[in-house]
Specification:
By secondary structure, the protein is an alpha+beta fold. Helices cover about 50% and strands about 15% of the residues. The strands form three sheets. It has a five-stranded antiparallel β-sheet, sandwiched between helices. A three-stranded antiparallel β-sheet has the order 6-8-9. The chain has a two-stranded antiparallel sheet with strand order 7-10. The longest helix has 22 residues.
Length: about 350
């Protein structure tokens, strides 16, 4: 059950008073929901208190994680943010990890709020105005400098002992990933996606893996421009290690689906310009991204959003933008030369319902 804004405000105040008893005159106010995506609940708030005869005012973000058994996911994002901040990558500084669900009924983290503007708003406004020159010369370079900078970080800073065996033999990395995807299809009972997986398995041997830290949902709405003009990357719950083209393929897929193929091409050209090299075999990774997108959508409508680890509002958000799936399906068919009628029927059944 989702708590009301008022109740969250009350419980958050109680939590902070309990956690920091040395702080006096503690107040929490201006709590506001910022949630836009499919996954976590996001709130901004002002936190004021007195400590050692000094007054403090902090502008913070509360990130609550929906679903079941998501303590590991919550801790993972907290750890990722800590590691990236220490490495000098521009992410919000994170202060609190709370896995005990007795406070807000779900795990949460608290981090700095980046006061400024959402690059996504500027990105789409520029497109609506037809200002392609500004898009190419100002917005895409900022986005791709952040993207390439992430992919150039030493990926071993995110490597834990329990993960090490996954990276001992990079030749098997893609194969292991696709085998995992196959087990997901069996668990989810989604045989409709098997033709896409078969194409990926058939073409995997042509891929030479290039491991990097990957965000896995890198797009303009996950970039904040501070009032001082500095860009920060937010929203890291899906971050992992993988081939950097997994990240790029996902971003290209979303860009093409929500804008146009031409804008997708501009983004790729900009990324290659910043990287200083062409990106090979990107189509394989766009199909991989399409497989992931279709699986996410089909799981939500088969089992529910919260069962899939998403906010309950995710289902309505998907319905509002379901037309983007036509691009995803068309792209799969164009690249793989494979028909996926059962997937198309599934999507049509959602539209009709």
């Amino acid at each position: 059950m989702t708590l009301s804004i008022l109740r969250i405000n009350e419980k958050l105040l109680e939590y902070l008073q309990d956690r920091f008893p040395e702080r006096k005159k503690t107040k929490v106010f201006q709590l506001e929901s910022l949630s836009k995506g499919w996954e976590t609940e996001l709130y901004s708030f002002i936190y004021t208190y007195e400590e050692a005869n000094n007054e403090y005012k902090e502008d913070l973000i509360l990130r609550i994680y929906p679903g079941t058994n998501i303590q590991n996911k919550t801790k993972k994002e907290y750890d990722v943010l800590k590691v990236l901040h220490k490495a000098g990558y521009p992410v919000p500084e994170t202060h609190i990890l709370e896995l005990n669900e007795r406070f807000l009924e779900k795990p949460f983290i608290i981090m700095d709020r980046i006061s400024g503007s959402d690059m996504g708003d500027d990105f789409f406004k520029t497109l609506q105005e037809g200002n392609i020159e500004r898009l190419q010369e100002e917005i895409l370079p900022i986005l791709n400098n952040l993207f390439v900078q992430l992919h150039r970080l030493d990926w071993k800073i995110l490597l834990e002992e329990r993960d090490s065996t996954s990276f001992e033999n990079l030749e098997n990395f893609i194969n292991n990933k696709l085998n995992k995807f196959e087990s997901y299809l069996e668990e989810d009972q989604l045989p409709e996606l098997k033709p896409i997986l078969n194409w990926l398995k058939k073409n995997k041997d042509e891929i030479e893996v290039e491991i990097a830290i990957i965000h896995r949902d890198f797009h303009p709405h996950n970039i904040m421009i501070s009032n001082e003009g500095k860009a920060f990357v937010i929203d890291w719950p899906a971050c992992s290690l993988g081939d950097y083209r997994e990240d790029l393929g996902w971003t290209l897929l979303l860009t093409g689906a929500y804008t146009t193929k031409e804008v997708r091409n501009m983004l790729l050209e900009s990324y290659e310009s910043v990287k200083g090299a062409k990106v090979s075999r990107i189509e394989f990774f766009e199909v991989l991204a399409a497989f992931r997108r279709l699986r996410d959508i089909m799981r939500v409508f088969k089992y529910g959003a919260e069962t899939s680890g998403m906010r309950k509002e995710a289902k309505e958000q998907i319905l509002e933008t379901l037309s983007h799936v036509n691009y995803v399906i068309s792209l799969v068919k164009e690249i793989t030369k494979t028909e996926i009628p059962e997937v198309e029927d599934f999507i049509q059944s959602i539209i009709r319902s």
